[in-house]
Amino acid sequence: xxxxxxxxxLLFKLQPALDAGVDQEVIxxxxxxxxxxxxxxxxxxxxDEAKYIIKTIEKPKAIETIRSLxxxxxxxxxxxxxxxxxATDVIAYLDxxxxxxxxxxxxxxxxxxxxxxxxxxxxxxxxxxxxxYDDDVAGGLMAKELVKVKYNWTVSQCVEEIRKxxxxxxxxxxxxxxxxxxxxxxxxxxxxxxxxxxxxxxxxITNDEYIAINAYSTGEEVASIMSKYDLTAIxxxxxxxxxxxxxxxxxxxxxxxxxxxxxFQLQAGLSENVESSDKVWxxxxxxxxxxxxxxxxxLGSSALVSGFEGDISRLPQLAFFMPIVAAMGxxxxxxxxxxxxxxxANNTLKSKNILPKLGKEFTVxxxxxxxxxxxxxxxNVIIGHGYDLSMVVSIALITVIIVASLxxxxxxxxxxxxxxxxxxxxxxxxxxxxxxxxxxxxxLLGRMMLG
Amino acid sequence: xxxxxxxxxLLFKLQPALDAGVDQEVIxxxxxxxxxxxxxxxxxxxxDEAKYIIKTIEKPKAIETIRSLxxxxxxxxxxxxxxxxxATDVIAYLDxxxxxxxxxxxxxxxxxxxxxxxxxxxxxxxxxxxxxYDDDVAGGLMAKELVKVKYNWTVSQCVEEIRKxxxxxxxxxxxxxxxxxxxxxxxxxxxxxxxxxxxxxxxxITNDEYIAINAYSTGEEVASIMSKYDLTAIxxxxxxxxxxxxxxxxxxxxxxxxxxxxxFQLQAGLSENVESSDKVWxxxxxxxxxxxxxxxxxLGSSALVSGFEGDISRLPQLAFFMPIVAAMGxxxxxxxxxxxxxxxANNTLKSKNILPKLGKEFTVxxxxxxxxxxxxxxxNVIIGHGYDLSMVVSIALITVIIVASLxxxxxxxxxxxxxxxxxxxxxxxxxxxxxxxxxxxxxLLGRMMLG
Lengths: 451, 451
Description:
CBS-domain
């Protein structure tokens, strides 16, 4: 069954029980489902129903449900709770990375208040130290919970440590080996612990060719290293080499998805992460900036076209081909920029050298421009637009495709140099620029060849 | 050090040694680097140098290097090898999922030939059974290598089985429990094995609330389930419930990235996965289809505009605002469709019900249309374009933004219904359609109000 169907089924069964308000029935139904599925139906129920569910089901499942909620839902959900409730009912039970994610949703004041209500002082200190990191660097993605052993221990001491930590660290993927100063010395896989004899010294089975990452590495770096080396977890160290946390692959998967979404949105001219379920004014606000850019570009185009008013009055047919020239420039530009943007994002753009790329882009766009222009010329002559006008349109088309492709190639590379997200270049920005340039080329050619 | 810098450094050190052809020097340099890094420099060296490296370095690292190569490089690399060499030097050493990926790159005939050279008959049979699956379903993503134990075993028998399989299964994340008919009964985490006593029965520590996936589930389903439930590995079962493989999260990460790339490309009007390093004719071929669609759309627009030749001769200023109307329609349409496409891809589009979405989209686009039109009207009146023409342009602008947004919302939903990738809708398709519709609305309004 697809996960969407699970939600539908659950909601269908649960709603009558919720309406009736019979605790035992609600518990019995929810007992059959995973926390991640319960979290999904929070989209479709009221805040009061959500609070009722969390209060009614068993504690570990309630915590897991809250943890699995979409950020937006978490934000809404916690509005109904006091700092004390958030601290003692939720944060106290979470892994530090999930706790920090939630604290980041609250105002700084409320987050501090929540932390002040925590009983476990070490945990509170951990959370405060983690809040210093941006949520898109390794320090913001990591969890403090991990199994850490000393390099001079035996395997049986390790197993004891795992036992002690077992409740706190749900997903023990490997054990980290440190020295007396907490400096990371290596990693031991659980498999090697299973296979080793109890009295073996840990250092004998430690892999010291481990990969670690600095707390200030960007999320992109973490994602690219973990996916390149196929890692399920990566230790995070501070500038002294001390082990301070670990990042697991599930958090990186979320990060990769968010990054891809952001590029997709930028390319589509959306200035913030929106979903169709967002409020009207949020949707409007996300779209307006790029519509404004389009409007400015459009005003530029009209100003430009108005400079050719005389030519248009003399030969109104010139106007017929404005849309084709403008649209093809936009299309070709977006294609070129998308290839570069994706190459930059995936780190597959091997050489940052611009000249050979422009040379290749010129060849590709000349080829495509020639094919499109030849087809257009044939069609226009057949249809009876006259050879001269048809030639102007086709020459303009080749020129525009080439210019737009070169611009599409160069713009993301320049943005990247200035540390601006190159995906910005592949959306309305390139379409708008190419509209203006394309029409300029077209009318100038028209004036020269037909005037 | 960023991974890109590692490659540069390696290449800088290695090239002189390669040129000199001193085996010992090449080995000493490559010994310092990971296979994944060595694989990256294959982009920059010749095929002969690549083969020389693979022949020279130690076998496990050579295999891992080949495994880590980008598909394109693998394809090129294997052209220089016979079926026998591929079988005995490479495939025999790989996990089944990586082996199948490589076999899929070869022609069916060569793949069969390669398999016929394998000594291990069980492994050969496994590969043949896996080749039956498409590479984007669970059966095509899974590996056959896993640790499988019987439900009536003890923990110490489990540990023995792990020891036996240890060499073949590099990343033991969990142990799968089956009955005598190989039907999956549950999963045991390595942590629980570490913590259990040797004589404990496996069934006592087995988690029977596991999530498994059918071999014919799509890659999207696998990705969405693994990321929803934060799984690092998922068992794959056949229609009888028998355990036939497992998928690890690293393969899913690659799949998620490829999916995101494909949506980005479709949106940008690229019809196949291309990189700027591809050959000119491949780049040209990927772009031509959507340029052709743009060309057709453009011809439609010109035919439409030519129907208003009389109006344009009478009032050439009408032509000034064609670009603004066309461009804004395109922008608004792409924004709307991108939100829907992303909602569909991420499964966050909670209700598939079209009407409320259209209602909301209408409100958002009316709001944005009003803002843009009001600004445009003010500007046009100030600039002296005359009140009547300015009104026509502004009314056309609102209309076009609304129509384009509604179309942008509805098109991906319809495509999805017909099992066509909705990302197709958010690219040149929507821009082109909106060009034609927008210009039609504009000129009709012009004729009605100014004619």
